[in-house]
Specification:
This protein has 85 residues and is of the alpha/beta class. It has one domain: Rossmann fold, CATH 3.40.50.150. It contains 4 helices and 3 strands. Strands 1-2-3 form a 3-stranded parallel sheet. Helix 4 links the parallel strand 2 and strand 3. The two termini are 13 Å apart.
Amino acid sequence: MARYDGLAEWYDGYIHGGGGSEYTDEIRRLLRELVGSGAGRLLDVGCGGGAFFDQLSALGWSVVGVDDSADQLRIAAPPKPRALS
């Protein structure tokens, strides 16, 4: 069992407006600044529920997420880009 198994719904809610908006805004700013736009594949290691797949895809990347938590990957499942365990 991974550390975040059992917390996927709570964490997803936190990231998507349940109190984590300042954190999420800062991560999105850093992704724009440090990763930037591009073409090709991008590996999101520790992707959790895939909260940033949409932004990375909008920047032009083909995103593949990996995470140790099957519970988090369940949240990251389609229609978001592919997530692998």
